[in-house]
Amino acid sequence: MCIMRLKINSVAFRLLTLAVCICPTPLVLHGEYRIDYSAEVIANAGEGEFAPYYMMSNRHGILSSSKGALARGRLWRPMETEKRFSYGFGVDLIAGWGSSRAYLRFSEDKGTQYIGRRPSPAWIQQMFGEVKYRGVFLTAGLKEHSSALLNERLSSGDLVESGNARPIPEVRIGFIDFQDIPFTRGWLQIQGEISYGKYTDNKWMREHYNYMDYHINQGALNTYKRCYFRTMPSQPFSATFGMQVGASFGGETKWYANGKLDKEQRFSKGIKQFLKMLLPMDGGADYYSGSSLGSWDVMFRYRLQNDYTVKAYFQKPFEDGSGIGFLNGWDGVWGIEFATNCAAPVRGAVVEYLDFTNQSGPIHWDPDDHPGTGITGRAEGADDYYNNHEYNPYANYGMAIGSPFMVSPIYNKDGMMMFLYNRVRGFHIGVEGDIINGVSYRALGGYRRSWGSGYYPLMEPKSDTSFMAEVKWDVVGIKGLALKGQFAFDHGRLLGNNTGGCISVSYSGDFKL
Q1: CA-to-CA distance for 199 and 206, rounded, in angstroms?
Q2: Could you give the dihedral angle defined by the CA atoms of residues 130, 160, 461 and 414, in that order, rounded to the nearest 10 degrees?
Q3: Residues 288 and 323 sit within 8 Å (Cβ to Cβ)
Q4: What does the pLDDT look like over 75-134, one tens digit per residue?
Q5: Within 292-345, where are the H helices?
Q6: Torsion of CA 198, 204, 208, 212, to 10 degrees
Q7: What would the pLDDT profile of 396-412 be if each residue is shown by its tens digit?
Q8: Measured distance CA(130)–CA(89) in Å, rounded
Q9: pTM here?
């Protein structure tokens, strides 16, 4: 007999305890009390070392191996947004098996060798509690979040919070939805959120890092914040615009060179650092403490007759002043979306162009940083999207927290903890619709070409072509039962040649107390 134990990081355990505390357990109830549930079995198989790109991306990091089987069970109570006060909670458990992949590792006694790594046999995907009062909510624990702006089913992914990686245990507060700004008579609305959490992938990082070059951080904290404004949504034309930022701070970083520990540094994560990460307060080095990545976001929506909607949007990435000041050319996500709420052969479609090739190079000289040298010329650069010279890449358990379009570190079989191919451009297309009553489809496809990064350029560019076709059957006559099948492939030197299929059976419903 084998007994599996779930180990939870101490900080994560405190957050989960807080989640239980803020949600009162219904011991004495008046009226009906509803609990939703779902159960799902997922099996995938294919050729290659990884599941095909579109099969593993933007599904919160649950699947990455080329072969595997998962069982998933969820239980939750959603908040009732129409009530002044409401609360909710949820738990989501996953267990199963996934095929292994070999990653390079160096040690002084054994030298360099490839060691097989496979996903954990069981983990807590979600466990959270939340409350709301009027338009403000508070959530504590592990909870999945997706893009607040883009279509998570058809888009390539949000630049800052895409739903591509596993959730991070956190405390999050914000507006439950867009709220009217006083004195604007509903013509202008605001939505915003702020969160603080802690990475729990320390062990994953230690097991996948090569201990040869670059650096690794352990014990870092995470923060996310956004602020969006929207014009009156009841009008045919509406615009949404704002900014979002994700960041890492704290922990201890060790730098390695040629297999030797070169230096190490412990970073502050006290209350002052929390405030600095919320809003930089002074100049000098303190201004950019921690690792920050953000985007300027704009979306224009026009509602046509017959319930059709057309959207045009872009997200512009930034890591420093050049990005914030729109000095990085066409870098970003540029997309158009068509959607309708009616059953139709084409119910939704997205076309996106993505470009991240206008980053400045690794040479950086700012005379303001070196007073007294007499050199007045400037060579400002050192852009390196999703990477940082002190912290881990912008990823969780190897999967990009932002857009998976830039190849996630989990693909780096050489054990480098960074985004090696972030100088990349390409396009993405997504389409979904209905075939017959109860049967729907979804298709995703795209192409990308990468020149490596500014610090690790490729001698020859690498490209990738990926595609996925999905068919879902909501079984007529058995409410809540659904069967889904997927076929996908990757072709090219960027991700490798991966081909595979995935089938799943799910059942969802609710019970009342």
Answers
A1: 13
A2: -50
A3: no
A4: 999 999 889 999 999 999 999 999 999 999 999 888 999 999 999 999 999 999 999 999
A5: 321-324
A6: 50
A7: 999 999 999 999 999 99
A8: 6
A9: 0.90
